[in-house]
Amino acid sequence: MDVVLRVVQPEEMALEPAAARPAGNRAAARVEALFREHYGRIVSMLARLTGDRAHSEEIASDVFHKLSQRPALLDSGDDLAAWIYRVATNAGLDALRMNSRRRQREEAAALDVMGSAQPSALEQLLSAERAARVRTVLAVLKPRDAQLLLLRSSGLAYRELAAALGIEAGSVGTLLARAEAEFERRYRARYGESV
Question: Is 191 exposed, middle or buried, given 0-12, 13-18 or 19+ CB atoms closer than 10 A?
Fold first, then answer.
């Protein structure tokens, strides 16, 4: 028996079928629109953090489910993208801190993702070790610093970082520089070498 797997795109997913949704349910439509707009980017960001794409998809789905369960937040008119990114990064960091067995799966997944050109066994070992070290240091940083570094590495602009973390746009550069310096300081203290 042949099993065919295919990747489901965000636009193919619906939190609730359109036919089953009452015409006046703007909250569900708003959640679905936010889901379509941000799901892929959230999953990519979480996959870089956790090293496990499947788990990242679960976390992202949970974030949108939490959003759908908060009608007051949906009706508030606030920028929900910031809320989504903040909750997603917190959930990702929580998963990173709480599940030591996940680290072993992350390292195996990172090796699979490395590409078609097979690196040597030594390169694989060094890459997995470096990824584990970075995750270890991220886990001990202040949550805001870890979020800043993670979101910036995901490609968010300073304005998006400010909105996601609820900080002034003018202070993002300073906070990011401090977070990078703290990350490097802790990395050197723990591993005796630069990043």
Answer: middle
Please state, in angstroms and rounded to a whole number, the distance separating the CA atoms of residues 107 and 125: 9
Judged by phi (left if over 0) then psi (alpha if -120 to 50, else beta), residue 6 lies in beta
CA 7 to chain centre: 19
pLDDT tens by residue, 134-167: 888 988 999 999 999 988 888 888 888 888 888 9
Query: 85: closest CA among 136, 137, 34, 14?
Result: 34
Backbone angles phi, psi at 176, to 5 degrees: -65, -45
Residue with tokens 């892929």: 40
For the stretch 88-118, pLDDT in tens is 999 988 887 776 555 666 677 776 666 545 6
**Using CA atoms, how far apart are residues 49 and 53, in angstroms rounded to an integer?**
10
Do residues 131 and 107 touch, judged by C-beta distance below 8 A?
A: yes
The DSSP symbol for 170 reads G
What is the chain's length?
A: 195
Considering only the C-alpha atoms of the chain, give the largest distance between any 2 of them, rounded to a whole number of Å. 61
The tokens for 169 are: 């746009």
SS3 69: coil
